[in-house]
Amino acid sequence: MATIYVTDRDGTEHQIDGTVGQSLMEALRELDYGVEALCGGMCSCATCHVFIESEWYTGLTPPQDDELELLEETESYQVSHSRLSCQVEFAAALAGIRLTIAPEE
């Protein structure tokens, strides 16, 4: 396990434990920070949208076309920050990652 720093929609930062091999969505959904993940991680709803800080974003595998299409349809989409947390697998290299839960739409 390693630490993930999560800023919720109220602006409060939390430290949570991430498990290698688990998606960020799975780590976030278990807590009550507003990540609904209605589709259960199938990349079809965008209710697990998060903003990842720049220094971490560049090290991630680039989003696939289906993820980008969903993100671009959201009102809060931010190029080089927005990701669906269901599409980001937590790895040891992401220990200390900082992200913010996107506004509810």
Automatic annotation (TrEMBL):
The lineage of its organism: unclassified sequences, metagenomes, ecological metagenomes. This is 2Fe-2S ferredoxin-type domain-containing protein. InterPro entries: 2Fe-2S_ferredoxin-like_sf (IPR036010), 2Fe-2S_ferredoxin-type (IPR001041), Adrenodoxin-like (IPR001055), Beta-grasp_dom_sf (IPR012675). The keyword Iron-sulfur applies. Gene3D superfamilies: 3.10.20.30. GO terms for biological process: P450-containing electron transport chain. Keywords: 2Fe-2S, Iron, Iron-sulfur, Metal-binding. PANTHER family: FERREDOXIN-2, MITOCHONDRIAL (PTHR23426:SF65), FERREDOXIN/ADRENODOXIN (PTHR23426). GO terms for cellular component: mitochondrion.
